[in-house]
Design brief:
Low-confidence stretches: 1-10, 467-487, 493-510
Oligomer: single chain
Strand content: under 5%
Helix content: 55-70%
Strand order of the largest sheet: 1-2
Mean pLDDT: 78
Distance between the termini: 32 Å
Shape: globular
Structural class: mainly alpha
Number of strands: 2
Largest sheet: 2 strands, antiparallel
Order of helices and strands: HHHHHHHHHHHHHHHHHHHEE
Length: 510
């Protein structure tokens, strides 16, 4: 635990609250449908954290920035459109103009139709929409809290996220060892023969593991800064290598145990992202610049060795999942029917949480299945069905913000002293990208846990926060010593002292 609890000064309420809230999301947020008691408990539990985040943000809001940044403008747009969608679940802001297609289908089935119906909101099922809306509270609170953290606190938060992922992995291994009747499976409707962790669905457990893998890369690199600066073997270096190797192997094996096709393929994308970051990783670990081509070749060999090792250990278990192809025919049919429903529900959609109320109107022989269809298995389409053009605008604003921020993080030069934070932000951007790709074939963000990880990674991508003490010190510093000014002169060695190289590769005076 000392690795997580190493003291770096005052932690602050935002750091402690963000860690506690993430843990609550991991333990309680694995359900795939609304209405579970654990989800309701989590939403009530997040209220004081949301109030704390709002109180801590008041200091920032009372001091507006000198100019409106692109990211802040996108954030304001997302907030406005999101608030409009939320209000529409309570008030009839829109709705009836887009229900003609649904009304015709209901009338054809012998129902009364929706023409002229007054539901009191912009949803065809107001009760379902009101039950789905509070799901945004925990991730919103976590985003606001993590966005307040400075570099050190963000890295330690990532360390806790890795620890929670390892906890879930241990639970998943125990579930497989105990078999389908394991009492450690917390949902009646679940994948009984695979590891699912705190989730009901193996695909969402795999999503947690590949996000943990990426955050683990950033955290271990930050903890091992300059660990390769000396050629002489040390105990610290041996421990670091052993822990990093063990974590990577366990996470790869955990995804194999989950037998998730999307998880396995997206893990390969994550490994490719780590290969792209290899020069920056080695520069951080060694303290000197590295040749990109040589470093990437070495990382490719190491990654291939890991994949082959995991394949030898569990290939027979997860390769059978690809017998039916990358995407089964039922998912493709669901997407087709969902897109048809979304088109007929334009321009305003059917309301949040209404998929199970609307989709039966479009079912036919091609979608009949012994399994209960509670989601579209394409979260982009399902969100478009429920929110219409307003939801499409919300997604477009987010994608614009994400693309602009990711471009800056991956293409701009790294400022001195910010290599650790930049690496963490790049890993967070990769995690967001993987979750968005995963949402094309599944619905990981419909679980509170993965939505919390998504919100935390978005917050990690934002520019770092300046602590109160650092802000005051910067304001009191002369202009030449502030950001963009001339750096202070180096400290002179005390008279009679000798300069020796520190064990971590730096320089100290004796």
């Amino acid at each position: 635990m000392a690795l997580f609890l190493k003291s770096h000064g005052d932690w602050g309420p935002a750091y402690i609250a963000s860690v506690l809230l993430l843990f609550a999301n991991v333990v309680l947020g694995g359900a795939t449908r609304t209405g579970y008691f654990a989800d309701v408990l989590l939403q009530f539990f997040s209220l004081p954290f949301l109030a704390l985040a709002a109180w801590l943000w008041l200091d920032r809001l009372t001091a507006p920035p000198a100019r409106l940044s692109f990211g802040l403008a996108c954030g304001a747009g997302i907030a406005v459109v999101g608030l409009l969608i939320a209000l529409a679940q309570f008030l009839p802001l829109f709705g009836a103009p887009g229900w003609e297609g649904l009304s015709a289908r209901i009338a054809a089935a012998g129902g009364a139709g929706l023409e002229g119906a007054w539901t009191g909101s912009s949803s065809v099922d107001p009760a379902a929409s009101l039950a789905a809306l509070p799901a945004v509270l925990p991730p919103l609170a976590l985003f606001l809290l993590v966005a307040l953290l400075d570099e050190d606190h963000r890295l330690r938060f990532a360390g806790w996220a890795v620890g929670f992922g390892i906890l879930a992995l241990g639970l998943g291994i125990a579930q497989v060892m105990q078999g389908p009747a394991s009492p450690l499976r917390f949902f009646e409707i679940s994948n009984r023969s695979e590891s699912v962790g705190f989730f009901a669905n193996r695909n969402h457990f795999a999503a947690q593991l590949y996000v943990t893998f990426l955050l683990g890369v950033a955290w271990f690199a930050a903890r091992g800064e300059r660990v390769l600066s000396h050629r002489t073997p040390t105990t610290q270096r041996a421990i670091w290598f052993a822990l990093a190797f063990s974590l990577a192997l366990l996470l790869l094996a955990g995804i194999a145990l989950a037998r998730s096709r999307a998880g396995i393929l997206l893990l390969l994308v994550a490994v490719a992202g780590v290969v792209a970051m290899a020069p920056a990783l080695l520069a951080l670990l060694s303290g000197r610049e590295a040749r990109p081509r040589r470093v990437r070749g070495l990382v490719i060999l190491i990654a291939a060795g890991f994949v082959l090792l995991v394949g030898q250990l569990g290939a027979g278990r997860f390769l059978t999942r690809f017998d039916a192809g990358l995407v089964d025919q039922l998912r493709a049919t669901l997407n087709e029917k969902t897109l048809q429903a979304a088109t007929e529900a334009l321009p305003f959609g059917t309301g949040l949480g209404t998929f199970t109320a609307v989709f039966p109107l479009y079912e036919d022989g091609s979608t009949l299945s012994p399994q209960y269809i509670n989601r579209a298995h394409d979260d982009w389409l399902e969100f478009f069905l429920e929110t219409g053009l307003a939801g499409a605008l919300l997604l477009a604003l987010f994608l614009v913000w994400f693309a602009e921020r990711a471009w800056r993080l991956w293409s701009s030069a790294v400022a001195p002293g910010e290599a650790r934070l930049r690496l963490l932000q790049q890993c967070a951007s990769l995690a967001i990208l993987l979750l968005m790709l995963h949402s094309v074939v599944d619905y990981p963000l419909r679980t509170a846990t993965m939505l919390a990880y998504f919100a935390a990674c978005c917050a990690l991508m934002t520019p770092r926060s300046v602590t109160g003490g650092a802000r005051v010190a910067e304001e009191r510093a002369p202009p030449s010593a502030r950001a963009g000014g001339r750096p202070p002169a180096p400290r002179q060695a005390p008279r009679g002292s000798s300069r020796v190289r520190a064990p971590e590769g730096g320089v100290r005076w004796s």
